[in-house]
Amino acid sequence: MMKILRLHRVEYFVNDVEEAEVNFSKLLNTKFIDHQEQTRPFGSLSLMNIELGTELVAPVPGGVLDPVLTANGQGILTIVYEVEDINDTREYLIEHGFEILNDAVIPVAGGEVYHQISLTASEQTANIVITYLQVTQA
Which InterPro entries match (predicted)? Predict the structure, then answer.
C-alpha cells in the first residue's frame, strides 16, 4: 500500500536555470544548491532549495526535455511527493492503472539517493506530471 509522507518539492520548468535562479532567489529571498552535474545525464539542469521545496529545472540544450519546453513553455514541471516505500508505490500505481513516465534512481548531493517514479500527465492527474520519491542514503 502506498503511503505518502509529505510534499517534497515543486519543480519549475524554466528556459534558463541561471536567469531563473536570479529571479527566484529574489522572489523567495533564498539561495539554491547546484545539482546540474547530477541531473545532466537525465536531460536537465537543476538548482534546488530543499528547505523550501523548490527546484528550478531547465532542459539541456538539444536534450530530451528541449521539445517539452518548446511545446509547453515555462511553468510547473512536476509536483513531488515523498513516500515511505517506492516499491509499494510502484505496485499501487500500476494496480490502479496509472501510466508511468519515468522510473529512475538519481544520486544527489550530500550522499542521498532519490528513487523517483513520475506519472504521465493526464486527465487523472489534472494534466500535471506527478512524481513519487523515496530518499535513501548512498
Answer: Glyas_Bleomycin-R_OHBP_Dase
User: What does the alpha-carbon distance between residue 2 and residue 4 come to, in Å, rounded to a whole number?
Assistant: 7
Residues 74 and 19: their CA atoms lie apart, in Å, by 13
- Show the domain range for 57: 4-137
CB 109 within 8 A of CB 135: no
Residue 133: name the closest of 78, 73, 96, 75 by CA: 78
Q: In Å, what is the CA distance from 57 to each residue of 3, 17, 74, 94, 137?
A: 27, 6, 10, 27, 23
Average pLDDT over residues 64-71: 85
N- to C-terminal Cα separation, the chain: 25
Q: What confidence tens digit (pLDDT) does each residue in 91-103 have?
A: 999 999 999 998 9
Which pTM does this prediction carry? 0.88
Count of structural domains, the chain: 1
3-state class of 1 per DSSP?
A: coil
